[in-house]
Amino acid sequence: MKKVLIILAFLLMNIVAFSQTANSKLSLELSVGKLFSPYRFYKNHTGYENINLGLAIDMTDKMGISVSQSYSRAYSQISNNRILVMLTSINPYITFFPENKINLRISAGTGLLYFYTKSLYESCPLSDHVFGIPIHGNIAVFYNINDNVAINLNFDSHYSFLFNKTYKLIINDKYYFKTCFNSVNLGLRYRF
Amino acid sequence: MKKALVFIALSIIFVSCIKYPEPDIPAGYGIPPTYTNYCILEEIFGKVKEDTMIYKTYYVEVYFSGNIVKENTLYSTVDCSKDPNPYCALPYEQKYFLNKIKNIEISANKPYRNQTQEIADIKYFFRNKASIYDEKAYFEEELGYSPMHIVFTEPPDSSQNFIFKIKITDDNNNIFTCLTDSVYIEKK
Fold first, then answer.
1. Percentage of residues in chain A with pLDDT exceeding 70?
2. Is there a contact between A124 and B40 if contact means CB atoms under 8 Å apart?
3. Is B96 helix (H, G, I), strand (E, B) or coil?
4. What domains are there in chain A, each with its CATH number?
5. Cβ of B71 and A78 within 8 Å?
6. Which chain A residue has its CA at the smallest distance from B37's CA?
């Protein structure tokens, strides 16, 4: 866990260093929307709000790298269980039609997924921490209002391989399982 | 371009390592597979096999019921009506109860041994997912699969009818109680 944090810190430092070069442009993105949980172990969870915060650096006109952090919640009526889903990811991206007023950006990457699950039964307060490695994909459409500000519409998906020992009975002694979360967000981008 | 190919190759290798969850007990043709859901306890029920027994063969079955807290969604949604396999059998749910036991008290409705109603000479047998019972000390033990067997190791002072009260306290200080049916225990 410490190693992952150190690697993430170094990557962030590198990104900031890249952002100081003359050609690169730094932009900050904030979007909110809804989470969908359609797959496997969490498929009976109903997704609620999703908040996504991203930092993107254009390395060239068409390519760059983004770091994103998202928070979302989901709830299952069957198990009366609530989960907080936190995804940190680093995603190289390609921008299509950069000279137009409407741009399309496709990115893919990986990072770290963290769940906090909590049973809402008062008689037995169970909670759990689950970690995972996601494969993260994102399609974003930007409408540039001016040189600095754009409205963005995000379609986000992460397919994750989860690790958790407390599920060993459910998954028959294999200490991992996998799930997929999608989200649709609407927000703003500010380019510095 | 090379980087993209390496990324795609690594993704394929990663995805190809996927292992799917398996049922608790491998199922044959027409034999339903079982799968486990995690639950917390709401109620207990005490059952006795017969109404007249000798103490050496007597035991109480304690059944658990409760709510799901972690669901195995893969097997809970199998639908045989959409399966072309003629031997398709609906999976059978097994509930595993996560409550950890702090204390179990068992008492009879009248003096059972040495003129006391509290029963001290007891063995506890916990069921596993293959329906095999193992004797364990209960403290800090999860309730596990239902039912649990409670075996009395000492005979009553005299042959007579008894009703037993079972009281389980979990580590969150929730108390669950139940009464068994009346049973005539022969001292032999």
1. 81
2. yes
3. strand
4. 2-191 (2.40.160.20)
5. yes
6. A170
